[in-house]
Structures are given as C-alpha cells and as structure tokens.
C-alpha cells in the first residue's frame, strides 16, 4: 500500500515576524488536510536585529516554534554565535521539540538540550531518522566556550550509529548549498537534505546523487514542502519531490501568533526603555564624511581591543543620537548588527594597502548583504590613531599613511581593532586571510558603544 508523508520546513526566518502569522495559519490548515505530516526548522529562526528577539535573547522564537508544534529543529549561526554562552545554553529549556545537532560540544560533551539524532516512528510504522548539523565557525564558537566539530565527520559518525535503524533519513543542514551538494555526493544514504544558511530557493528541489535537496529561501518568504510516497508494506521510499509555497500569496493569519507577537513587542519595548546614559548635545552620523558618532565608536573599538589603530566603516552606525536620554532601544536602533570587535596585526605595507582599498569610491558606495551587516552601505572608512594624505587628482590614491603622527614603516607591525565583518568575503583580504584573529565576544559593537557613552558621562 502506498501512503504519503509530508515534510514542511522553514529556514532563516531571522526574526522577520511580519510573515509568521501567515506561516502559522498555513501550517495549521495543512495539519487538517494531511494524515501524516512533520514540521522542521533549519536554523537562524532568531536574529537579534529584531527588538523582540534582542530583548529576551530569542525566547519568543522558541515560544512560536512550540505553538506551531515543530517536530524538530537545528540551530544556525545566529543562535550559535550571536548569543552569549549562557543564553544559548538556556534558550531551549522550555522547548517542546527536539533540537537535533550533532557537531556542538562543551568540554567533550554535547549540551543537554541537543540531541545527536532523533528517531520518529510514524503511525504506519515507518521510521524516520532526523540528523542535524550547523556551520563550523570554529574560532568564534571556541571564544564563546563551545567546541564545534567538522560537520562532515559528524554526519559520518551519526550515519554509522543509526545504520539499519531507519527507513528514511532526513538531514537538517545549516551548512549552505555548496556544502549540501558535497554532503549529497559523500553520503548517498541520506534521503533528503533540508537546507538553509545561504538563503537559496529550490522551488522544485534539486536531486544530487539520488539525494533530494530542498530549501525555502529566507525571512519567511516561502514555506518548503517535501512530499514522500512510501510503500508501507516494504517500508520503502518510492518517490520524493519538493515544492515551495510563497507566503505573499497567502491570506489567512493565525490569531494566536498575532497575539503572541503583540504581547512580545509590548514587553520588549518596555525592557528596552532602560536608560543607558544622557548626552548633552546631538551626536551626528554621516556616512560619507567625518562625523562624531561613528568616530566615537571607531575610537572605542581601538580602546576596547587594546590596539594601535581603530578601523570601521561609517555605515555601521545607522543614525544620529539626539540630545537627552539614550535608551537601550535607541542604541539597538542605530547599531543592530550582530557584529563583534576583533584585533589583528598587520604589517605597515598591508595596512597601506588596506587603507587604499578603503578609500575606493566603489568601497564607500558598496551595498552589503550578509556578513552580519544590517545596514545599507559601507560609507567612509574611519580610523582612530591613523591618518593619511592623498595624491593630487581625481583618483583617490593614498600618498602617505601616519600612525599616531609618525610616518608608517612598511616592515613594522601594527595592531588593528576592527570588526569581524571584514574577516568574511572579499572586503579586506589582509584581514580576512590573517592567521591569528582575536575575537572579542560576546560583546557586539552596540555593547562597545554603550560602554563608551557611559564612560563619557
């Protein structure tokens, strides 16, 4: 006899709660239609850019997952490395679903809230094994007191452990599309990979080496569905296909989800009214010129990191601060990024090349997506303890660079306090490729800004 099993999945919501009531209503409707259905989330459900998730460190996200009756989740980097250790350790204490995550450890043991795999037995006797792994940002996890292991090694170990126990194997993967394809190539015994992290949309799935890859983009724009056809007599998977549902096309909204979010917003607003300090005059922000507030943060990063030089793009600060009382909400509004300070050591020559790259017009105008940045564009590169002159002409060519008033020495070494966004992508290769990057965690840039504002008053 052939039966259907429906796997619905969400990923990379990033606390875009505006779409959640429609998602909740859709899932509730599907539960009335399908005899056998499971629901999974593949991580980055939480993002502290949202005031609600910032206020309670993601607890409201878990509440929403509970309300909708998720059957399993894994974590993304936003849960894993933007929360302080203790906050992540308590995030899922009231979870009514398994957190499946095999490659995270603390002092040689998996945290109590994480399961290496999860077995689900359906009403028809079919046994489904759920695996889960997340991307290994090793130095960052270590700085937070966790040990993250190679996800491929972890998948291999788990497959060996569950061998012969399951009829269907599903991997919740917060690794990204490139790694998912590698997993499919290396582990054809996996039936379905539900993906995330790189925000890719696979409208009809992707078949790689007999493994079905599925992903539903980002921000709750889509809900993913994998439809399985099972021969129940032989406990055999006959067919698997993937689709997505655009949330924009949905009309119904969940009253329960709306009420929960409204209550959470009121609570967050109240919590975030906490006074940070009082400033006597406006601290202005300009993205393409010198201005006091971004410069204040650049100076603070240098001092926080104990570096010779501070370096930060002005676009990191989204707005000015008006004179008067400054609250946590205001600080969060102007600096919402889950970005941490770092310290690296560069030679004088590397520093000259980095300054030159930061001067380029295309760099100032660059619109950034990802890397933790939640602003619009880079803006002017600001420095603390460093100045430079330009050659004459329209092209911005660096002539001389000075560190604390002294001409830079090309073969000397200088410590630079800057932001971890520069360790990703192709923005500043000398910083990205550095062998020894010191991360300052769990503090975000807004915590450094808060520290400096309090210190100044």
Characterization of this structure:
GO terms for molecular function: 5'-nucleotidase activity; nucleotide binding; UDP-sugar diphosphatase activity. This protein folds into 2 domains: 2-268, Purple Acid Phosphatase, chain A, domain 2; 274-456, 5'-nucleotidase,  domain 2, CATH 3.90.780. Helices cover 30% and strands 27% of the residues. It is built from 15 helices and 25 strands. It has a 6-stranded mixed β-sheet with strand order 7-8-10-11-13-12. It has a 5-stranded mixed β-sheet with strand order 3-2-1-14-15, with helices on one face. It has a 5-stranded mixed β-sheet with strand order 20-17-24-19-25, sandwiched between helices. The longest helix is centred in the middle third of the chain and has 17 residues, at 255-271. The mean pLDDT is 95.
């Amino acid at each position: 006899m052939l039966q259907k099993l429906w796997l619905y999945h969400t990923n990379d919501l990033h606390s875009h709660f505006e779409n959640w009531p429609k998602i909740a209503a859709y899932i509730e409707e599907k539960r009335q239609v399908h005899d056998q259905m499971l629901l999974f989330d593949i991580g980055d459900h939480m993002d502290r850019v949202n005031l609600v998730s910032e206020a309670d460190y993601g607890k409201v996200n878990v509440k929403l997952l509970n309300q909708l009756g998720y059957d399993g989740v894994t974590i993304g980097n936003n849960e894993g490395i933007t929360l302080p250790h203790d906050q992540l350790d308590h995030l899922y204490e009231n979870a009514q679903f398994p957190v499946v995550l095999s490659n995270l450890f603390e002092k040689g043991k998996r945290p109590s809230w994480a399961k290496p795999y999860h077995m689900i037995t359906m009403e028809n006797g079919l046994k489904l094994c759920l695996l889960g792994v997340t991307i290994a940002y090793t130095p960052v996890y270590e700085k937070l007191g966790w040990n993250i292991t190679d996800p491929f090694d972890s998948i291999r170990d788990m497959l060996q452990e569950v061998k012969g126990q399951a009829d269907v194997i599903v991997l919740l993967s917060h690794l990204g599309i490139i790694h998912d394809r590698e997993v499919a190539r290396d582990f054809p015994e996996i039936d379905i990979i539900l993906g995330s992290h790189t925000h890719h949309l696979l409208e009809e799935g992707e078949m790689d080496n007999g493994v079905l890859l599925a992903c539903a983009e980002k921000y709750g724009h889509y809900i993913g569905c994998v439809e399985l056809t099972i021969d129940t007599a032989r406990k055999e998977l006959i067919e698997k296909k993937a689709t997505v549902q655009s949330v924009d096309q949905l009309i119904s909204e969940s009253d329960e989800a709306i009420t929960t979010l409204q209550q959470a917003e009121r609570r967050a607003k109240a919590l975030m009214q906490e006074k940070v300090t009082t400033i006597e005059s406006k601290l202005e922000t300009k993205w393409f010129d010198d201005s006091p507030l971004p410069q204040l943060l650049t100076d603070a990063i240098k001092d926080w990191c104990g570096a010779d030089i501070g370096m930060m793009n002005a676009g990191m600060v989204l707005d000015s601060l008006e004179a008067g009382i400054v609250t946590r909400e205001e600080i969060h509004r102007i600096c919402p990024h889950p970005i941490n300070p770092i310290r690296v050591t560069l030679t004088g020559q590397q520093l000259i090349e980095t300054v030159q790259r930061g001067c380029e017009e295309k760099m100032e105008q660059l619109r950034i997506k990802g890397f933790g940045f939640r602003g619009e564009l880079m803006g002017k590169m600001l420095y603390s303890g460093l100045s430079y002159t330009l050659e004459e002409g329209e092209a911005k060519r660096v002539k001389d660079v000075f560190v604390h008033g002294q001409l830079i020495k090309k073969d000397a070494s200088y410590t630079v306090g800057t932001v971890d966004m520069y360790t990703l992508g192709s923005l500043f290769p000398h910083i990205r490729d550095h062998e020894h990057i010191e991360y300052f965690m769990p503090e975000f840039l807004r915590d450094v800004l808060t520290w400096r504002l309090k210190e100044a008053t």
